[in-house]
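Hey team,

Sharing the ABC transporter permease run so nobody has to redo it. Sequence (658 residues) first:
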Amino acid sequence: MRGRWSLAFWAGLFGLTWLLSAYSFQLSKAWDARWLLKYPKPWELPLEGAIKSFLDWLVEDANFGLFTFRDLTRAIAAVVELPYRVLRDLLIEGFHSGIGDSAVQLSPSLSWIAVIACATAIGHYARDWKLGALVGGCFLYLAVFGQWESAMITLASVLVAVPIGAGGGLLLGIAAYRLPWVERALRPVLDLMQTVPVFAYLVPILILFGFGPVAALVATVIYAMPPMVRITVVALRGVPDEVMEAGRMAGGTRRQLMWKVLVPSAAPTLMVGVNQVIMLTLNMVIIASMIGAGGLGFDVLAALRRLDIGGGIEAGLAIVVMAIALDRASQAFAERSQRGRMAGNLVQRHPWTGTVFVIIIATLILGQFVPGVQRYPEALTVTTGPFWGEAMKWINVNFFDTFEAIKVVILNALLLPVKKFFGGIPWAWGIVVMGLIGWRVGGWTLGLLAALLMGFIAATGLWPKAMVTVYLCGVSVLIATLIGIPLGIWAAEKPAAGRVILGLMDTLQTLPSFVYLIPVVMLFRVGDFSAMIAVVLYALAPAVRYAAHGLRSVPEALLEAGAMAGCTRRQLLWRIKLPMAAPQLLLGLNQTIMLALSMLVITALVGTRDLGQEVYIALAKAQAGPGIVAGLSVAFLAIVADRIFNALAEGQRRRLGL
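Structure output:
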C-alpha cells in the first residue's frame, strides 16, 4: 500500500509539473501575469550592489588595527610569490642579480636533461623502473614537442599550489578531527568551496589580488584544498583504535599521538588526498590563465580564442601528459607509504640522489658551452599541430553530414523538449516541487533547505538561467548514466574488460576539463549539443566506477545463496547484485551530477546561455556582484542535488539492512 501511495505521489507531482510547464506561457498571457515565469524585478534581492560595496570596503577601508585588509592581501601575495619566483627561476628563467636590462645572470636554470633525470628518479623511487620510464618519458615528450617552457611555468604553479593546498588541508582536517565544532563550521564552507564554479572564484580574487600569477595561485589553492580537508578527517578516523591504544601505552603526548601515530598510520589515505589536490590544481591551470597564470593553460585558451585547432590540441595533450606523470607518481607514493623502509645508509636507501646531483652539475657546466644541453634544440622539436588541424579538417569534410544528422536528431528528440519542459516551470511551483521532493526523500528539514535555496535563485532573478542549467545537467547526467552503468556492470562482470574500461576512466579523469572542449567544438561547433557532449565525457567516470565498485562489493554469501536457489547469471545480476548495489549507484549518480555542474560553467565558452554564462560574463567585466550571485546559484543547485541523492542512498541502505 505504501509503495502504491509513493508511486502515486511521484506520478502526480510530475504530471502536475508537466501540465503547468506546458500551459504556463498561455496562462501568463491570459492572466497578464508575467510574474508566473519571471520573478518580479522590484522583489529581487539587491545582492549584487551589496557584494560590490562590501568588496570596495575590504579593498579601500577595512582595518584590523595593526594592519589593513590590503596589507593582508599583500602579505599573502608575497608569501605565495616568493616560492613561485624561485621555482620559475630554477626551472626556466635562471637566477639573476639586478633589474631589467642591467640584470646579470648568476646561474642558469636546470637543463631539460636534469629535469627529466629528476622526474625519472622520482618515478623510480616511488615504485620501479617502469614508472620511472613513464614519468621521464612524459617530460621528454614536453621537450620534444616544443612545450617545455610553458610546461615548466605550469609545473612551477603546481609545485607551489600543491604543498600549500595539501598542507593547509591537512591542518584544517586535523583541527576538524580534534574539535567537533570546527568540523561543523567547516562542513558548509567546504560544500560551498566544492560547488561554487571555479570562474566565480576568479572574480573577487581578481579584485583583491589583481591580475597576475599570484592571484591565479590563490584561486588554485582555494579550489584544490577542500578534498584534502575531507580526506584528512576520514583518514584519521579510519586509524584502528588498537594503534592509538599502543601509542598511549607507550606514553605518547597528544601531539606525539597525532604526528607520530595517527598521521603516519593514515598516510596511504592522505596521499590519495594529495593526488586529488594535484589533479584539481592541473584542472585549474587553464581557468587560472584567464587572470594571468600563463603556461600551458594560457596556450590552450589562446588557441581556443583564435580557433587554432592544432595548437589547442597540442597544448591540451601536453597538459594531459603532465597530468598522467604527476597522477601516476602521486598514486605510487600513496602505495609506497604502505611498504617498509629500505635498509642501509642514506646512499643505499636513495641510490638516485647522487646520480641526479652529478647530472645537474654536469649539465650546468656543459650547458655553458653546448646550448643544446641547457635548452632542447629547437631544430629537433616536433610539432603535431598541422597534423591535428588536417585531421579535424578531414573529419569535418567527410563526416559533416553524419555529425549534423546525429546532432539534429538528438536536439529535436531530446534536448529541445527537455529544455521546453524546464523553461516553462513557474518559479513559484518550482520552489514548491523541490521542497516536496526534499521532504519526501529526507524529511521536512531537507525539504525546507531545498525550498529556501531554490527561493534564493528565484529571488536573484536567475530562475530562467537556472532552468537552462538544470536542463543541460539533467540530459547530460541521463546520458552519462545510461552509458556509465552498463560499462560499470561489464567491468565488474568481466575482469579483462574491467581493466580496459577502468583504465580508460583513469585517463578521462586525468584530462583537465578544458581539454574536452577542443575536439567537441571542432566537430560540432558551439551550442547546447557541444556542451552536452563535453559534459557527458567529463562526468562519465563516477557512474562507471561506482557501478563497478557496487557490484563487486556484494557479499559472496548472498551470491552463493542465489546460486543454490537456482538463479541464472542474469537473475543474480538483476535480482541480487543491482538491488544490493543501489546505494553505490545513487552515490555515483550524485558524483556525476556534481561533475556535470562544474563542467557546465566551463561550457559557457561554447555558447550555453545558463548560469555558467552569467559567471563568465561577470569575469570578463570584472563584476564581482553578478559573478558571486550566479556562482552561489550553481552551488545551491549542487547542494540540493547532493543532499537529495545522499538521502536516497541512505534510505536504500536502511531498506537493505546495510
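Residues 385-423 form the longest helix (39 residues).

Ping me if you want the raw files.
A.
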